[in-house]
Amino acid sequence: TGLADPGPVAQTFFMDDEIREEFTLDGIVTLVDAAHIEQQLGRSDESTEQIAFADVLVLNKTDLVDSEALDGLEARLRDMNRMAQVVRSECADVPVDTVLNLGAFDLDEVLERRPTFLEPEYPFEWTGVYSLDGGRYELSLAEGPDPAMSLVVVSDQGPDDAALREGAEWCVRQYAEPAEPIRPGEAIPVGKHANLQLDSPGRKSFFLEVDTPVRLGLYAQHTAEEFDLQVKNAEGGAIGPAAERTWVAQHEHDDEVGSIAIETDGDVDSERLNAWLGELLRERGVDIFRMKGFISLAGDPRRFVFQGVHMLFDGQPDRPWGDSPRRNQLVFIGRNLDEASMRQGFEACMI
């Protein structure tokens, strides 16, 4: 489309009954010039909105940009639109199935391809759960991308998904506390925000003191692979994790356009939800480019899936909840969104 606003085009598929009967909006693909996009972001509303609306971002001309700048650019794009899949390319040479038959406006298909896209962002990227007997254990790390790494060690960490999510929510609060710097050779405190100092060359060793058999959860700022993280016993033998989990990590950015994810367990009052959504779209609909998610409506055995473009909202009942936990996941992409206010407004709809 060139420098055009994709919003009105997408809205047509919601507003025009004749078009809805004959056509389906499969997805929105934005081709990004990696060599020149930095000059446009913040100066051109159209370029920013094309990124915000996209389901797939083809990051092109990667051969003209060094790897460090490319990683920074991709992180910035992901901050602006956390729903989009980012595909790197040279001369726009990408597999056809990355840009066609996306089913991007079908939530089930999106979740099947990218199960984490509705997850909230966390200040850590990886969790490893280790079953340890009493004793002293070494945490060994190689040189990695940063001179330091934040870490929270959780005692009695369960390996199942529900326990990991519970531990993650607790760790978010710990990460908000000031970090205690830990030098190589020192013991890592349990239940506190530690900052491992990794600026010395070669492998670095830290220690975990365990009094009784326990499962420890390591919630780390980076993945284990980035630092070749290993847990070793007193004999120097490596101990593998009983469970691992990667998380959607936060990135700092200054762009006006960004993404907000809201996730809560429990049921929503439909009347309160309608009132909140109506007010939100009336007051901020122009600034909300895309929204998507599913909701647990009180008294309804089916989950309610929705999507929207600007002030247009489309939703319908979906498959039954069955034995699955009833929960709510919403993602909004837009300009200058007030996350605290939106989160508070949705939580007021909960029963």
Shape: globular
What structural class do helix, strand and pairing data support?
alpha+beta
Query: Helicity level, as a percent range?
Result: 25-40%
Overall radius of gyration:
23 Å
Largest sheet at a glance? 6 strands, mixed
Strand line-up of the largest beta sheet: 7-8-6-10-4-13
Query: Which H/E pattern describes the elements?
Result: HHEHHEHEHEEEHEEEEHEEEEHEEEEH
Total E-strand runs: 18
How many individual helices? 10
Q: How many domains, in number, for the residues?
A: 3
Give the overall pLDDT as a whole number.
86
Share of residues in strands: 25-35%
Low-confidence stretches: none
Our measurement of the CA-to-CA distance between the termini, rounded to an integer number of angstroms, reads 44 Å
Descriptive labels:
351 residues, alpha+beta
Q: Could you describe the 3D structure shown?
A:
The chain is an alpha+beta fold and 351 residues long. Helices cover 26% and strands 31% of the residues. It has helices spanning 6-15, 17-22, 37-40, 45-53, 67-80, 107-113, 161-175, 224-227, 270-284, 339-347, and strands spanning 29-33, 56-60, 85-88, 126-132, 135-141, 148-154, 180-182, 193-197, 204-210, 214-220, 230-232, 238-239, 243-246, 257-265, 288-295, 302-309, 312-320, 327-335. A six-stranded mixed β-sheet has the order 7-8-6-10-4-13, covered by helices on one side. Strand 15 (288-295) and strand 16 form a beta hairpin. The chain is globular. The model has no long low-confidence stretch (mean pLDDT 86).
Please outline the helices and strands:
Elements: H1 6-15, H2 17-22, E1 29-33, H3 37-40, H4 45-53, E2 56-60, H5 67-80, E3 85-88, H6 107-113, E4 126-132, E5 135-141, E6 148-154, H7 161-175, E7 180-182, E8 193-197, E9 204-210, E10 214-220, H8 224-227, E11 230-232, E12 238-239, E13 243-246, E14 257-265, H9 270-284, E15 288-295, E16 302-309, E17 312-320, E18 327-335, H10 339-347
